[in-house]
Amino acid sequence: MLILAIDTALDACAAGVLDTDAGRLIAQETLPMKRGHAEALMPLIARVIESAGIAFSALDRIAATTGPGSFTGLRVGLSAARGIALAADKPVVGVTTLAAFAAPVLGENREPPVISAIDARHDQVYFQATSGNGATLVPPRVAPVEEALAASRFGAPHLVGNAAKLLADRWPAHLAPPVAVDPQAAPDIAWVAWLGADISPNAAPPRPYYLRAPDAKPTADSLPGTQKLVAS
After folding, report:
1. Residues 78-87: tens digit of each pLDDT
2. What is the arrangement of strands in the sheet containing 2-7, beginning at the earlier edge strand?
């Protein structure tokens, strides 16, 4: 399959084309940025498609990150993915940002648990915890940093995500320290693509995956069918 992967959820604007038969990305580009995704994304995608040497019609699927992340960034990426999918008559799937952060660590088949975490501000994080074999220990949620640190009960973890260092800096001193800390600003676009190739479009709709309501009221152009899950 040829998969176009798109990520605008956090502090990057990224796209890549995965050729699953070749087992690699045949084109990719990532621009670090906190704002400006709307202006940068479509030209970036055009460059990636040109570099891959294919037409949009040759794609088999489009994958895009669904969050948690920037409300504005998510709408930009998902709108682009939906538009391309509609024009090319191809399916589109959603990949959560937390899963994309965890995927390369889980792919190493290590035993320590994995905590993927994203800074939600106000002393909170979006996080999930999985065992080394991918089993869910703590499902995705937004919670105070202290609640995320309580996942230390599963053992010394591998921390990954843009809040990995935040958790590491506040790790309880009486516990074994994390086995690794990967403070990535955004997930690797290659893993967004591989996850997008592995999941069914019926099981992973391209809708924003919000774990809390936005700080500002949504605008008229907000995407319909939004998942808004508020942690209890």
Report:
1. 999 999 999 9
2. 24-32, 12-19, 2-7, 61-67, 92-96
